[in-house]
Specification:
The structure is a single chain. By secondary structure, this protein is α/β, with parallel strands linked by helices. The chain has helices at about 15-25, 25-35, 40-50, 55-70, 75-95, 100-130, 135-150, 150-165, 200-205, 220-270, 300-305, 330-345, 380-395, 410-430, 440-450, 480-490; strands at about 170-175, 185-190, 280-285, 290-295, 310-315, 320-325, 355-360, 365-370, 400-405, 430-435, 455-460, 465-475. A hairpin with a 5-residue loop joins strand 11 and strand 12 (about 465-475). Helix 3 packs across helix 10 and helix 6 runs parallel beside helix 10. It is elongated.
């Protein structure tokens, strides 16, 4: 997922994680990516929400990898399954019951390594058969590493060394006598003498000094075992570390591939729903780009049976987007589509649009109206201001802030004045703003100021009151056509 480092599944998420999850309904997105697999869900959540820290180069790097994944889905899933097999091998077949003593550690580590080498062999074969099918820098680097690290002679040497580490012919250890005739400097030795055949063993005379233990000498056997443990301690630790190293490789391989598996799952769902899908064009954080065609709310697409309407906007060079218009006209859906697309783009994914270009942002924040409930310690308006204060404390220049009917919990004049002051301060701090509002005094005041870096969008309403769920450039209106909803609910019932 990165050119020079591994993906950190335990990294801290943005402090406004819960607000983003709630306001953008991201649980729907992550469930579609995971298919009820908790690891895939966790990786998707971490990757998408931490993507706000990624730069343009990382985004394009991941896009190229995912394009390879789409072209070679079966191979990617096979490699993912190999990583899972390695991890399951340790979980289901590794005993670990003797790991308190060096001899036991060595025995279990050698046993685990022998099982893992079979899985490593599968990975090498799959990589060798598939290398020519991939084009991205990420996969080419991965396959080159497999080829370099897992050469044919590697397996032969590993097999020989693992067999030697079983010490079927005993353990050869050298030591020196230290103070008080205590053994020091224990060194595990490799026997250079060829193994004698049965005839030589029958008639040969032992060289050097030897002694034999009585079968009932428990203390002697314990002492001998301790001597053996002293000799093989370093070897046991080295072999155990090797097993851990290979296991960690497969754990990281599974984790990073889990992100792309989740992307494949989501891509399949969106295409099944006949939603457009494209790879976005990210621009640098200091730029001001936001242009797209047929952008849709990916989470709404996933949860709706009928077709979802998309929107077109060409607003490069704009810092402020003011969205007004009819109730139930698609304003909140549009706002959500902006936030979801920004997150998907910045973590290297595709977006639900025919085309999409936007500058990356240093942070994404949402300020949505909340329904009053028992957990609130004060009124709705005080709660809105308190949340706004928390957002301001975390804001950085070039952040993106989405307002949804904010500051409407007080009277029109007071809400409009507060919204105006906050928006002006945020614009001075180089924050890009999308503001859905029914505060006519606020929206009209901005319209009349004729700001060059602002664009005004209005939810369409046909003459008969029908909503098209499309947004188009337009001056704010004094009415939100709430009477249409009254007629729809009460007069037809």
């Amino acid at each position: 997922m990165y050119r020079e480092r591994d993906f950190d599944l335990q990294q801290k998420l943005p402090p406004n994680e819960s607000a983003l999850m709630q306001d953008l309904e991201l649980d729907t997105l992550f469930r579609a990516m995971s298919g009820n697999d908790e690891l895939l869900f966790q990786v998707a959540k971490q990757a998408v929400l931490s993507g706000l820290r990624d730069d343009v180069d990382t985004i394009l790097y991941r896009q190229a990898i995912f394009k390879d994944c789409l072209r070679n889905e079966s191979v990617v899933r096979e490699i993912y399954d190999i990583a899972i097999e390695a991890i399951e091998t340790k979980r289901t077949r590794w005993l670990g019951v003797f790991s308190r003593y060096p001899c036991g550690i060595l025995y279990e580590a050698v046993r685990l390594l022998k099982m893992l080498m079979e899985v490593v062999g599968k990975l090498k074969r799959t990589a060798g058969e598939s290398v020519d099918k991939f084009e991205s820098k990420g996969f080419k680097t991965f396959f080159a590493m497999i080829k370099a690290e897992l050469a044919d002679d590697y397996f032969a040497r590993a097999k020989t060394q693992l067999k030697e580490l079983e010490f079927r012919d005993g353990v050869l250890v050298s030591t020196e006598l230290g103070q008080g005739n205590q053994g020091i400097n224990y060194v595990l030795r490799k026997s250079l003498q060829p193994k004698p055949n049965w005839f030589q063993r029958l008639f040969s005379r032992p060289s050097g000094y030897t002694f034999r233990l009585d079968p009932r000498d428990e203390a002697g056997f314990r002492s001998l075992s301790e001597l053996q443990d002293q000799g093989i301690n370093l070897a046991a630790n080295a072999v155990a570390q090797s097993a851990d190293h290979i296991m960690n490789f497969f754990i990281m391989l599974r984790t990073e591939l889990a992100f792309y598996i989740g992307c494949i799952n989501l891509h399949r769902w969106l295409r099944h729903k006949n939603a457009p899908v494209c790879f976005p064009v990210p621009t640098q954080v200091g730029d001001r780009n936001h242009s797209f065609k047929d952008l849709r709310d990916a989470c709404l697409v996933l949860s709706m049976e009928r077709n979802v309407i998309g929107n077109d906007v060409n607003a490069d060079g704009k810092n402020l987007f003011v969205i007004t218009g009819a109730n139930q006209g698609g304003k909140s859906t549009f706002l959500r589509s902006i936030g979801i697309a920004q997150l998907m783009m910045q973590c290297g994914m595709f977006v639900a649009a025919e085309s999409f270009t936007a500058n990356i942002c240093s942070g994404l924040f949402t300020h949505y109206k909340r329904e009053e409930d028992a957990t609130m310690r004060s009124g709705k308006f005080d709660e809105e201001l308190d949340r706004m204060s928390g957002i301001v404390d975390s804001l950085t220049p070039d952040s993106l802030l989405l307002f949804n009917e904010s500051f409407a919990a007080t009277n029109e004049r007071e809400g409009a004045e507060i919204a105006k002051q906050i928006v002006n301060a945020l614009l001075e701090a180089r924050v890009k703003i999308f503001f859905v509002t029914h505060l006519y005094e606020f929206a009209n005041g901005l319209w009349e100021s004729k700001m060059n870096d602002a664009i005004f969008l209005r939810a369409e309403r046909q003459a008969d009151g029908q909503r098209t769920f499309k947004l188009s450039p337009g001056e704010p209106l004094e009415t939100s056509y709430g009477a249409d909803l009254y007629q729809e609910i009460f007069e037809k019932s």
